[in-house]
Every structure is written in C-alpha cells, then in structure tokens.
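Section 4.2 – Deliverable D4.2 (structural model, holo form)

The reporting period included a commitment to supply a predicted holo structure for the target in complex with glutamine. Inputs used:
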Amino acid sequence: MPTYAEIINRMKCAAAANYDEREAHSLALWAVEALTGADRVQLLVDPHREVEYVDMEEVERVERELSEARPIQYIIGTTEFCGLQFAVGEGVLVPRPETEELVRWVAEECPTARRILDIGTGSGAIAVSLAKLLPQAEVAAMDISEVALDYASRNATANGVRVRVVQGDALSDWASAFEELDVVVSNPPYVPASDRASMHRNVRDYEPELALFVPDDDLLRFYRSIADGATRALLTGGALYFEIYEGAAEQMIEMLTERGWTDIELRRDFNDKNRMIRCRKR
Ligand code: SAM
Ligand code: GLN
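Output (structure tokens):
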C-alpha cells in the first residue's frame, strides 16, 4: 500500500492544473480524508505512514476528476454545511459558507417561528439546517428542479428532520400554495450572466446554470417575485430573508422600500461583501 504522503501528493499534482498551490493542497487533504477515512490531524502529523487500505481504482478516479476541475464536493458526493452532512452532485448547487451566515441570522432572530419556507432550496441546505436549529418549526422547501428536490428530501431524512418538499416556480404565482408563514428565506439565482466567463471552471463547467445565473438587465427578477408572493403568504410582521448579489444591495433596498417592506437590514458576509438582507411585512 502507498503512504498517505504519496496519495496526497498525487492528488495535489492532479489539482495543481486548476488551483493555486494552497488550494491544491487543501483539496488533496480533503480527497485523502474521504478516500482513506483518516482525519486531517492524522494526515498532517504522520503523513509517511503506510495506508492500511485504499481502493486504488477510487484513487485514480478522484485524481482524474480533480485534474478535470470537478468540484471536490461532487467527487466525494458530500459536503458540510452548518455542521451537517449534505449529499450533493451534478444538478444541485454546492452550498456556500456565506449561506451559513444567513441561516444563523434566521435562527437567531426567529427562535419561535412556527412556519418557515425556503425558496430555491437546492440541496436543502437552508431548510434542513433551520429544521435542525428550530425543532418547533414546520419547514417547507421549494424548488423548480426535480433533481434538487430529490437531494433535499434525502438530506432531510439523512439528518433526521422533517421538511415538506414542494415543486414550484418562484417566478410565477408560488404564494397560492402557502399561507400564514412566519419566515420566508431564499438564496435564489443571482449571478449576472456576464460573470460566467470569469468564474472558475469548477463552477462554470459543473454547477447547474439554473441555480446560478440571471440576465444582466434583470438581476432582481427572483427577488421581486419572491417579495410579492411573500406579501401574501407571510403573516403580518413576518420576516423575509434573502442572500443577495453584492452589487445589488442598493437596488434591493429600493425595491423593498417601494413595495412597503419595513425594518430593512443589510448585512455583510465574512468576506465583507453586502450579502444578505432582512425585512418585515407591515
Ligand atoms: N438554497 C440552496 C443553497 O443556498 O445552497 C440553493 C441555492 S441556488 C443559488 C438557487 C436554487 O433556485 C437552485 O436550487 C435552483 O434549482 C432554484 N431555482 C431556479 N429557478 C427557480 C424557479 N424559477 N423557481 C424555484 N426555484 C428555482
Ligand atoms: N455565491 C454563489 C457563487 O458565486 C452563487 C449563489 C447564487 O447564485 N445564489 O457561485
């Protein structure tokens, strides 16, 4: 059997075609953890130990896929979000760390919420994490994509929570299926289509376009439709939380103000980018 260091090095070389040195190293460790079951501390403390068992065909597959810039989360089929494990694969967005901040904001401000809806749930990251953090709440998760809904329900079950998974279109009359909600939360597609060219290959070539992009001349298309539906589906005083495009904060505040939303608050993420907004139904 090879040593851990040998496999780490193979993974690192494969990743180096697509990532800088630091990132290639971190992806290599991540891959080897998944392949061998060793934890990161073991890998760093004693890398020259021989591996007890590893499937060499799997080593070759992971190596090849890293060299093709497939996201590590798809390669190993799972990712961590809010301390929970989520199955992910092609057809579903890999949940991002900034979205954890949105989840924590909702959980902090709405500890007694009874009914929560997550629109554009993808892997179910937001809905499942909220169901875990707020066990008294009934959580529903909506998406237009069947692949996403399938991941979301598997992830709810795997994490031991109940989430009502519903197919729906956020751009049409979605609100007729919901009433008396305390919270609506959404991380909808918001990347301007013109950003596509400058995005990393691992996003551009692998993640679903349906989850990411909006036309440059209509960046708020999801937010307008979600806010309008939420006006009907939320209880008075109910809260609406969005993850937003960093360049759209002003437009968002203007749009929500015009529509009569109150208590509007903008927050930055850990990268110091305007990233989330909360408002309430008057
Ligand atoms: N909530 C997940 C997260 O934060 O990781 C996924 C967010 S992803 C940015 C946006 C999601 O919106 C995708 O799962 C996509 O399938 C879904 N979506 C795209 N168009 C939609 C539509 N018209 N109606 C409902 N959901 C839609
Ligand atoms: N933040 C994600 C990215 O840049 C996109 C999330 C979204 O479109 N809502 O890849």
